[in-house]
Specification:
- The structure is a single chain.
- By secondary structure, the protein is mostly helical.
- Helices cover 74% and strands 0% of the residues.
- It has 9 helices and no strands.
- The longest helix is centred in the N-terminal third of the chain and has 28 residues, at 2-29.
- 23% of the residues are buried.
Length: 146
């Protein structure tokens, strides 16, 4: 079993290296598909133990290159909201551009309420989340005030 794991892990490392080369080349060339390379790198890193910060950074670079890509937002939010804090959730919500923010408010609120598929919001953060809910969902607050 150990040999099998090592061969799979070796493959993951090679895939990571290949995406990193693609990222470096496309970034240097200013290629229009740079977001695809960063997204591929994020996907390659997301299942590697100890690479959470690297994975999030790759997702963020993909979004910097193509802010409106919903496939990147979907994968990023799924990954980023696993084990997120209240402050992290608020920062994430602020990062989503207004043009697509409304599409993700229900998902973000389910994370804040602990109703997401991971049950991700730590209980210690729940009381703070209740106080700061208005900051999390400005679009919904505007609707309720009308």
């Amino acid at each position: 079993m150990k040999a099998c794991f090592c061969s799979v892990f070796g493959c993951v490392v090679e895939v990571d290296r290949a995406w990193r080369l693609a990222v470096d080349g496309m970034t240097a060339a200013g290629h229009p598909d740079e977001a695809d390379a960063w997204f591929g790198l994020a996907q390659a890193r997301r299942y590697q133990k100890g690479r959470r910060d690297d994975t999030l950074a790759a997702f963020e670079r993909a979004l910097d290159a193509a802010l409106g890509r919903t496939d990147v937002w979907d994968a990023y939010l799924e990954y980023a909201t696993y084990g997120i804090t209240v402050d992290g959730l608020l920062m994430l919500t602020e990062r989503i551009p207004p043009g697509v923010q409304a599409d993700y408010l229900d998902r973000l609120l389910s994370v804040a309420d602990g109703r997401d598929r991971w049950g991700g919001m730590p209980p210690a953060g729940m009381w703070r989340r209740r106080r700061r809910r208005r900051a999390l969902c400005p679009v919904r607050n505007l609707r309720s005030e009308q």
